[in-house]
Design a protein that fits this description.
50% of the residues lie in helices and 10% in strands. With 723 residues, it is an alpha/beta fold. Strands 11-10-9-12-13-14-15-16 form an eight-stranded mixed beta sheet, sandwiched between helices. A six-stranded mixed beta sheet has the order 1-2-3-4-5-8, sandwiched between helices. It has a two-stranded antiparallel ribbon with strand order 6-7. Helix 18 links the parallel strand 13 and strand 14. The protein is globular. The protein binds nicotinamide-adenine-dinucleotide.
Length: 723
């Protein structure tokens, strides 16, 4: 047996099944590379870049498995994939098109019916539909670096091809449900531990799978069909309450989301219903979710995220510069977090401060942050040590000399920033990228304080910088394409979602936030309370509203900026002047008890607000939720329209990505511009016109682009395509 099989492992002849190439590029093809009498047949899927299960791949698999079934000389089958990963999921672009047979279920049914053992050879990221294919195999072996998961929930859908039924059968509901509800992948070692894979193989996983197949043939092991494995479900059949306990433990925040509820229901069917009936119902749920607004919004963000890092007008072939060492100037709130991002990605980083005291404070905060993560189980102690070793603190700007990239995060003062960049110009290497983390200031003006404005740009991180995913990359008037490309590449490397924007006051996110903030404050004077305003947004799905957010950031920060510029915020100023700085003093717009971060409405704040209304001669009235919500969201969308019109954001999807990743906009509504298209632009235009007239504020008038699109029946999404 051994000899016979090994003889037949030599590599391929002709591809047995493949799609016709389109446009000269190598297209979807699923090849049977070995089908000789008596052999362990090896089916290799080869559909770069990630072997997505598009139609041609499904057709190829169906053909290959049929041949393997019918070829009497084949005893076992290995299913593998070429390139960087085993199948990493469905082809999401097919979701919006009519389905094309064969569907994945047909392929899996054929695999299930196989009397010959099928062994999956896993590497890379078998995700979603890819993992569902692996689950329909009888055995799974994996390379040590493999990461396996069912990320469907992140796109507002659920695993529709048996994942909700086979995974609980194979690894048990207590392990399967958290994987399905989080969408996060697990490592090969975890998969070996919970039984998802049978063996971890060093070297070529296909060879490992062939050896494994040979062994089970030699041992005459019975077929191990996952759909027939019932033992792990028996417990839940006998104790249905146990399922609710697993749900309570695994369900993250699911309020307002259709997909998690559907996923929980589907897993419940795994032990309540015969598998065929459960699968039928899951497919119906899948179709319902796929066609619903939430999944459409989440898919929009999935694609928009990939687009947002593509800067317009980049010369073909622009290559990022190599980054091996970073420097961060300022070890405050932002500088510390930014330095952690570099260290987390394995990039050595020097933190530069003005005084030993400020430096020590900054370094101590970084260490405490890491220690907290270790204490929570989010990081191993030796990983913390490794990261801390990559961080060096100094009090001399000269240390920026070695850095390939410098990120400035000193106080938000133009003169100070200019002074720092002027000095950096003399110190930094000629090919270094010089970035500022300014929130509002003019990046072009900062760049002009150097003799090398093409090397300067903004890298606007969000607080806390080591946690928040968004990175607004601000392209200055002179920024060189390769400098921009470098910032994007570094952003990705340190785990951020880069969105390229242009120069204006507050860039995209903060400029739109400002429009929301003005109305929020205005509504307090008219009759609303902080909890009414914040409630309108948390009800929609934001983690917090503007006033809870101000309390978190500290009201004194904005107050100081306003004092310097002569601006006023009636209620916030009065609160600060009464010693209410927010969470840090236990009182702000809300009250906070015993170190808790939960805001409690406070009658004292109400008094301050009512007094402010009286001072302004405003007769307070009742504002309903709908009015509050629209007055917060529509001015923000209006500002987004201006930003698009000015070209500060290249695409409406970029704005959506910024709001989802930087400001907690609920992803299942797709971001402000996607949401506006759904609500309908004529309605938003009309409401804005009313709001502007009532407030006597021309800034709230519908923006020209919004008016134009509303009149022509257009949408923000189609506007971008036409541009
Ligand atoms: N805090 C936020 O939420 C946030 C978010 C995004 C961007 N930003 C921007 O990031 C920058 C820093 O903000 P922050 O909140 O970290 O401020 P911060 O006050 O917490 O820290 C600033 C640090 O810079 C140091 N510093 C001042 N001058 C220096 C110099 N010449 N050389 C070296 N260090 C110097 C200070 O000692 C201080 O530790 C600002 O431009 C701010 O607008 C802040």
């Amino acid at each position: 047996m051994q000899n016979r099989v090994s003889q037949r492992e030599t590599r391929p002849k002709t591809p047995q099944a493949h799609a016709a190439p389109r446009g000269g590029r190598k297209q979807a093809l699923s090849q049977v590379v070995e089908l000789r009498p008596g052999a362990v047949a090896v089916i290799v899927v080869d559909n770069p870049p990630v072997n997505a299960l598009k139609h041609a791949v499904r057709a190829g698999l169906l053909d290959a498995f049929t041949r393997a079934r019918d070829d009497k000389s084949i005893d076992a089958i290995v299913l593998a994939a070429a390139g960087r990963t085993f199948m990493a999921g469905a082809d999401i672009t097919e979701f919006d098109k009519p389905p094309q047979a064969p569907g994945l279920i047909e392929v899996l049914d054929l695999m299930d019916a196989s009397k010959k053992p099928i062994v999956a050879a896993l590497h890379g990221t078998p995700l979603g539909g890819g993992l569902e294919v692996a689950l329909a195999c009888h055995y799974r072996v994996a390379a040590p670096t493999t990461r396996l998961g069912l990320p469907e929930i992140k796109l507002g859908i659920l695993p529709g091809a048996g994942g909700t039924q086979r995974l609980p059968r194979l690894i048990g509901i207590d392990k399967a449900l958290p994987m399905i509800l989080s969408g996060d992948p697990i490592s090969a070692a975890q998969a070996l531990d919970n039984g998802l894979v049978d063996e971890i193989v060093e070297g070529d996983p296909t060879q490992g799978a062939i050896a494994f197949a040979r062994r089970i043939l030699a041992e005459k092991r019975p077929l191990r069909r996952v759909r027939d494995m019932e033992d792990k479900l028996e417990f839940y059949r006998a104790n249905p309450n146990a399922f609710d306990e697993v749900v309570a433990k695994s369900a993250k925040r699911t309020r307002g989301l259709a997909a998690p509820a559907a996923a929980i229901e589907s897993v419940r069917w795994s032990f309540e219903l015969p598998m065929e009936e459960a699968e039928r119902r899951v497919r119906a749920k899948f179709a319902e979710l796929r066609d619903g607004d939430q999944s459409k919004a989440q898919r929009h963000i999935f694609f928009a995220e990939r687009e947002a890092a593509k800067a317009p007008n980049m010369p073909a072939g622009t290559k990022p510069r190599e980054i091996n060492r970073a420097a961060v100037i300022g070890a405050g709130t932002m500088g510390g977090g930014i330095a952690m991002c570099f260290a987390n990605a394995g990039i050595p980083v020097t933190i530069i401060e003005t005084s030993r005291e400020a430096l020590d404070r900054g370094l101590a905060t970084i260490k405490k942050n890491y220690q907290n993560t270790v204490a929570r189980g989010g990081l191993k102690a030796d990983d913390m040590e490794r990261r801390l070793k990559l961080l060096t603190g100094v009090t001399d700007l000269e240390a920026a000399r070695d850095a390939d990239i410098v990120v400035e995060a000193v106080f938000e003062e133009m003169d100070l920033k200019k002074q720092v960049f002027g000095k950096l110009d003399k110190i930094a290497r000629p090919d270094a990228v010089l970035a500022t983390n300014t929130s509002y200031l003019n990046v072009n003006e900062i760049a002009k304080s150097t003799q090398r404005s093409p090397s300067v740009l903004g890298m606007h991180f969000f607080s806390p910088a080591n946690v928040m995913r968004l990175l607004e990359i601000v392209r200055g008037a002179d920024t060189a394409p390769d400098v921009l490309a470098t910032a994007i590449a570094v952003g990705r490397k340190i785990g951020k979602v880069p969105a390229v924007v242009g120069v204006c006051h507050g860039f995209v996110g903060n400029r739109m936030l400002h429009a929301r903030g003005i109305e929020a404050e205005r509504m307090l004077l008219e009759g609303a309370l902080p909890q009414d305003v914040d409630g309108a947004l948390t009800e929609f799905g934001f983690p917090m509203g503007p006033f809870a957010m101000s309390d978190l950031a500290g009201l004194d920060v904005g107050w100081r900026v306003r004092k310097a510029s002569g601006a006023k915020a009636e209620v916030a100023d009065a609160l600060v002047e009464a010693g209410r700085y927010g969470q840090k003093t236990g009182r702000g717009f809300y009250r906070y008890e015993g170190g808790s971060r939960s805001p409690i409405p406070d009658p004292d704040t109400e008094r301050v607000i009512v007094e402010a209304s009286v001072r302004h001669g405003i007769k307070r009235r009742n504002l309903d939720r709908k009015e509050i919500f629209e007055r917060l969201i529509f001015p923000l969308i209006n500002e987004g329209a201006r930003i698009l019109d000015e070209g500060v954001a290249a695409r409406p999807g970029d704005i959506d990505v910024i709001w989802v990743y930087g400001y907690g906009w609920p992803v299942w509504t797709g971001g402000p511009m996607h949401y506006a298209d759904r609500v309908g632009l004529p309605y938003i235009r009309d409401r804005l016109a009313e709001i502007a007239a009532r407030a006597g504020n021309a800034k709230l008038e519908p923006a020209p682009l919004l008016t134009k699109l509303a009149q022509s029946g257009g949408k923000f999404s189609t506007y971008a395509k036409a541009a």
